[in-house]
Every structure is written in C-alpha cells, then in structure tokens.
Specification:
Elements (H helix, E strand, L loop, with lengths): L6 E10 L10 E3 L9 E6 L2 E6 L4 E6 L6 E6 L5 E6 L3 E6 L5 E6 L5 E6 L5 E6 L4 E5 L4 E6 L6 E6 L5 E6 L4 E5 L4 E6 L6 E7 L4 E6 L3 E9 H8 L12 H11 L3 H5 E10 L8 E4 L5 E5 L4 E7 L2 H21 L12 H4 E8 L4 E8 L4 E8 L3 E8 L8 E6 L10 E4 L5 E5 L3 E6 L5 E6 L3 E6 L5 E6 L3 E6 L4 E7 L5 E6 L5 E6 L3 E11 L6 E12 L4 E6 L5 E6 L4 E5 L5 E5 L6 E6 L5 E6 L3 E6 L5 E6 L5 E6 L5 E6 L3 E6 L4 E7 L5 E6 L5 E6 L4 E11 L1 H19 L13 E2 L6 H33 L11 H5 L5 H11 L5 H7 L5 H14 L3 H14 L1 H5 L5 H69 L1
Helix pairs in contact: 7-9, 7-10, 10-12, 11-12, 11-14
Amino acid sequence: MGLTKQYLRYAASAVFGVIGSQKANIAYVTLRGGERGRYVAVAACEHVFIWDVRKGEKVLILQGQKHEVTFLCPSPDGVHIAVGYEDGAVRLFSLLSGESNVAFNGHKSAVSAMTYDALGARLVTGSRDTDVIVWDIINESGLYRLRGHKDVVTQVLLLKDRNLLVSSSKDSFVKWWDLDTQHCFKTMVGHRSEVWGMVLLNQENRLLTGSADSELRAWDINYLQEEKAAGEPKVKKGKTLLDDDDDEDNEEGADDSLEERILRCEKAGSLLREARDRVVSLAADAKARVIACHGNDSVLELFTVLEEEEVQRRMTKKQKKAQKKAARTPGDAGEEAKRTLTDEILRLTNVKASAKIRWADVLLCASGELKVALLLQNNTVETYALKMSDRAPAPNKTARLTLGGHRTDVRTLAFSSDNLAVLSASGDTVKVWNRSTLQVIRTMACEYALCSLFVPGDRQVILGTKSGKLQIFELASGSLLETVDAHDGSLWSLCLAPDQRGIVTGSADKKVKFWEFELIKDQASAQKRLTVKHTRTLQLEEDVLCVKFSPDHRLLAVSLLDSTVKVFYTDTLKFFLSLYGHKLPVLCLDISHDSSLIATGSADRNVKIWGLDFGDCHRSMFAHDDSVMFLQFVPKTHLFFTAGKDKKIKQWDADKFEHIQTLEGHHREVWCFTISPSGDHIVSSSHDKSLRLWERTREPIILEEEREMEREAEFEESMAAGDVPVVPGETPGEAAPASKKTVETVKAAERIMEALELYKEEARKMEEYKYACMAAVNQLPLPKPSPILAALGNVSPSRYVLDVIKKVRSSELEVSLLVLPFQYAPPLLRLFNDYIQQGLEVELVCRCLFFLLKIHFGQISSNQMLLSVIDELRTNTVSKVQEIRDVMGFNSAALQFLQREIENKEEVMFFADATGQLAQKKKRRRKRERAILTIA
C-alpha cells in the first residue's frame, strides 16, 4: 500500500528558559577538581543542570528521559550524583562525563529523600510510597526495602560509625532502623505534626528535627553498647558460624528490650525559629557546624554549632557571673549555671533572599567562609557568602542566576519572519532568544503581557498587556518606544494584517480596534520612530477573546465570551457568519493559509473545523483532557497543532480529521506555542517555567504504526503495574526485596526463557544426531546450529544462555528470576553446575543460584531428580568460591607487598637525596672558608 499522504515527525530538541525546577533540591557539586562552592546542581524538568555560579552559565546537562527530577544527592567523593525521579527511578550520573550507567527501579512513586553512606558504597532512598530502600552501588543492586512509615518519607540519614539509619516522615514519626537485622528498633513519637527535615550534630550524638511549628526540637542520643564496653572490658573472641546465635541470645537476655540495648533518645530542648510556619527544608554542612533552615518565606535562618571547648568557656563565664550575682545578694544561695541548648547552638544570622525560598544548601570552606546556595520559587538561583570569623557575619550576595529564564509563566510567544529569533513575554519581562544557540539576546521590562508579535522587518515588537495597553519595543536598543492606552480591559489578542500595514486588537472591553503603523518624529532624538494610529473600532456585545484576519484580508474572525465565533467582512465590518456549537468559550482559533478553513479550540476540550464559505462545521474532535489553550496552522498546509492544559501538544490533519502525533514533554499546563514561518520549528511554553524547542525531522509518520506503538506502550505500562509474584512461605514484614517489576524485568525474564528454549532445542537436536550416528554406517554431517548462535560466531548454546543472563542489569536480576516460571529452574540449575565447574562468571552464577534456591526451596528440595544436581552444586560451589577467595587474598597480599617495596625504595632514594645535599652543603662551606682565609 503506497503512502497517500506523508506526515513528518516533530521531535524534542531542547529545553530552555528554566533555571531551576521547584520539585527538586539544590546541591553544591565539584567538577573535575574545580574549586568547592563554584558549581550547583539543580533540576530542570526531567534534566539536571550544573551551573557555574561565578560565570552564570550552564556547564553540564545530565539528560533525563521522561519523568521530572524530584531529588539530587552528590556522592561523598564528588565524582557522581544520584538523581531521583517522579516515577520512583534512581539514576547515577558521572559528573566527569555526564553519562548514566546505573539505574535503580524500586519505588512506585516519586523519590523524596536520598543519602549516601560515608564511603559512597550504599545509597538509601525514601519515597512518597512510604518505603525506604537501601541500594548497593558497587554491585548495582537493591539490598532490601524497609516498610513502616505511613506517609511520605521526608528525610533519611545514615550514621557514619554504626550500621544504623534514621528516617523521618509526614506521619509525624522518626524511625531508627538497625541495618544488620533490617528492622525498626525505635520509633520517636515526640512530634505533634509532620517531620519535614532533620540533621545529625555533635559527632552523631544529637538529632535536630524540624516540623510544622516554629520549634526545632533537639534529641540527645546515647549509644548504650559503647558505655557497656567501657564499663566492663571483655576479650572479644572471633565468632564462628556455630556460636554466633548463642551469643545473640545471651545479649538479649542481658538487656530488657531491644531498643534499650542499642541507644536511648531524650529530648534536650528546642530552638525557636523566627518564622511561624512549617520548616520547608533543613540543611547542614558536611561537618554539621552550620545549620540552615527556612519556611515558606524569603528568610533563611542560619545557626552555628559551637565546639565543646567553646561551650565550656562560655559556661565558665556564665558560672562566674552567677557567683558574682550571688555574692551581691547575700540572702541568695549561689545557683549552679545550667547548660541549655542555646549555649551550644547560637543564631548566626539571617539571609534575606529576593523571593520565597524553595530549597537551600550550605558549604563551609576550609578558609572559614560559609557559602549558601538558594533555589527560589520564581525560577532563580542565588548564592551568598559570609565570613564565619567575623563577630557579626553579614551575608554578601555573590551571584544571582536570572538571565536564562522568566520569573513568572510565559504567556505569549512569537517567531521572527526569518525563523531565527523567538520572543517570549511573561508577567514582568520580555525576552528575545536566538533559536539556534538558545541564548538570550535582549531582556526588557514590560507589564503583564498576554499577546505579542514582531513588527514586519523584525526590528520592533508589540505586546498587548493585561491592563489594556499596547507596548512597542525597539530590539536594537532594547528600549520601550511607546505605551499606547488601547483598551479599558485586558488585551487578549493581537493579529497582524495580511498587508502588513497594521494590526487588529481584541479586548475584554468588548471592542475590536484597528491600528495602522506610522513613523513619527521623536521630539527627544529628532529621529523617526514607529507608532500605531487608531483607525476603526468594532463594538460587540461580549468580551473578545481572540481575533484573526483571514490571509486573503477578506474576513475577520472574532471569538466571544458567549462561546460563539463571529465572522465579519474586513472592509465594511458587516456581519457575515456566526459559528456556534461550542459549550464553553473559544480560547483560540486560526484560519488556514488559503482562507478556506477555520479551526477553533475551546475550554470544552473540543476542536471544531469549519468551512469559511458557508460556516458549516466539517468535524468536531475531542482533542485534549482539559481546556484547549492554543491552536495554530502549520504555514502553507492544512495541518494544525493544539496545546492543552493536559500538558500535551497534538498535531491534526484538518482535511482527513486525523490525529497525527502527540508531543509529550511538558510537566504542567501548556499555555501557548508558536510555529516558525518555515514550519520547521515549534517553541512552546508551560506552567513548569520551561520553554521547549521542537524540530521537524525527515522521518515520516505512518498513522497505523503510530497507533500500534501507543497501544503497545499502554499494554507495557499495564503489564508492569501487576504485582510481583510472591515468594512462597514469606510473609510481608518490615523488610522486603528492593526491586520492583517493570517492563525491563519482564522483557529480561522473556529473554532468559527464549535462551533456555533455544538451549533445549539444540540439546534435542544433538541427542537425535547421536542416535542417528549410532544407527548409520557412514559419518553423518553435524546438524545446523540455530541462526542466532551462528550470528554470534557459533557460540555454544550453554554460553549463549550465560551471555543472556550477563546482559540483564544487575539491579533487575532478582526480579527477572522471580518472574521466571519454575519449569525453567531445573535446566538452569544444571547449567549453573557446568558454569561453576568451568569457572565461568562464578560470582554472578552463585548470586542467581542462591536466589533460585531461596524462592523455589520447597519444590527443589522435594524433587528427587534434582537431588544429584544440588549435591554436585554444593561441592563445586564451595570449592570454586574458596579458590576465588584464595586468588583474591593472594593478589591483595601481593599488592600490599609491592606497596611496601615501593615505599622502601622511595625512602632509600629520599635518604640518598639527603646525603647528596649534605655533601653539597659541606662543599659550599669549604669554599666559603677558603675565600675567607684568602681575604685574611
């Protein structure tokens, strides 16, 4: 079947105009050994931008896929950054290359908190699905899932010296988890409302929590095992596997309860914040010397945690004062000066930002300078510095990133006639961007803009504002030429006349006005400048929402608040047609290049296509799941795009009434878009503060295939939504497996099954061949191998199965094996035995083997056929693993020996250098002495 009509695909090209998204936090990062505090990482919709705050430019983009970024956590070594997403995925990016090689899928909804351990070997993530998951970064797999919270997890902290984890949640509880036994041993219930943040202070002996009131509560932590060890020293003997359990029983008997055995928490007091509302974020620097805290306002409160010596000095002074006071009042007995929380944690200063703060991060440099990075709610990043050594440190603003985006939502966009410049205007500024480099060329202050256009010649732009004014800007100088009081109500729509000599404006004051361009002499500069002259007015009964000229200049279409579109003759302003049928007002409309069709988009979520000859409705289409906000025809075609509040942009064919493609990418309502005069580019703007550029590719779209792909995507989503198979005999407890069933895990399981089927088929062929050879007189040719094996260079079927298992992502391996039906387990176990005997991928094979034994224990242990296989596996596995351990031990010892050798050599060389220097010194001294003697 030939292609009757070819459509070309539009693809996402770039995201710009967003400096930092509100959903995720801001974090200081270091790049390639650069200075600390120079680079910050912020989320930008689905990407992560790394900004150089000194230069104010983007230095690295970590590319996301589809879902918004919700949390960032740099690794302790500063080489990687963990990024959590809206769908619960976590990806690790390298800050050197900007690429991601590791991905974890375990959470069902957005990641809300993350932390690394001190070595950077484990990552703990908390989520909106109330689970906490611990991931092994080195093995790239999930260790376990901890369940217990009843609401969003707001913060997770790992202790440096002990294998303990603290998590806080909106359910008002702080939970302590023992990671050795994977269970919650203590729940702190001292909060009346949600716990929004927490930090560990004083070498992890104090916990500071922030909740929905103005108090920051402090809790003293006493680790009881330590005290016991200090009180009664006992020789620790090396534990063996046999006496391990008895020891634990004895310990449990010794202490009354489990939580009392590990630690005790007592409230130590509280710090009062100046803000009255909830804590939005609570942060501390790496050494926990400075605490930063803020609410829903623009003030960041900074506290400093004093060293123990400093606290003691202050307490001595306080004691002396109390004694003097007691001495002055004879009747008063000398009171002991009590140590309070305010003696240990002092208010440092307040940082006043230019707008409401969303997230904060602090960094204490070695020089004693404190750097503060703030992500504000109006798409701005600000950084401050203050000297900690000063008596009253004053914050000094060091950078403000505002140029690359608008403070408020962009409400109108326009393309220049040469396709090169893009105009975007928001509630306070109008910016002109270079389309190819996506850099800002001009930024000018304006009133709240609702509509805009480039004046022919692209040297001036005109904006229509919410207050009913027309503002004319000159691009060369970036100055406002004139503000014209055009209407008494909001100026909703502007349209350039087809003869390019004037414009028409429509407003909420129920008037449509016609204007002509004019050049007048400017009194100040004595040069000519552009202005507009009012020529005609069309008075209507309802507010005007949108106006459009037909390209042949014959008709003018006006959309009104009564849900109709009225069409008038342009020359006489006589009424021609009324297009009625929409249930809610028409928010946007456009007329095709040949003036034959008019398309209207309405708040009732429908798009209607009408003929302009008789006003007949050709087709009504349900276009979006929310109001249709914008509609425009692609130049010189009958294809048009619509944008909706449902975050989507869709392309339609007005002749065949077909939906062609959907452009998905925006994470909030799409307000408007503009198509370049060539039709090759689209720029769209959204409530997520981002502007997106879409480019027309040369790839054709075949509609049947497009629909098929959509159906497949829906099916895959529903397949992944199913529950993970339950492991027999396991009851749901606090700890559970970390991974979750996804499309990838199901596909991986299918690939393993296909490989095993192929292996079985090849084994059957070889059996048949052997029997045939025994029966035949002459030597028979070998059976042909499977085309798949031949394509991979004639690998053996068993190696092919191993290769397939190796290609499964480490983080998805367990769930893929869990999805595998039991009938595939026996052949796998036999193959594992072969692999271990040959010494192939012993570590990976052992991991798969132990997991299969765990989940199919009942069926395997009751199967007589597998008895011999399991027995062989037992002996082979133990001996092979022992062998590998020996090799690793030998290599480790050899490396240590080499290190010692090198050190010894260096020391010898060092001493040789020293003796050489000594000899030279002696020579110089002798020379000097000779010189003195000769002079004498």
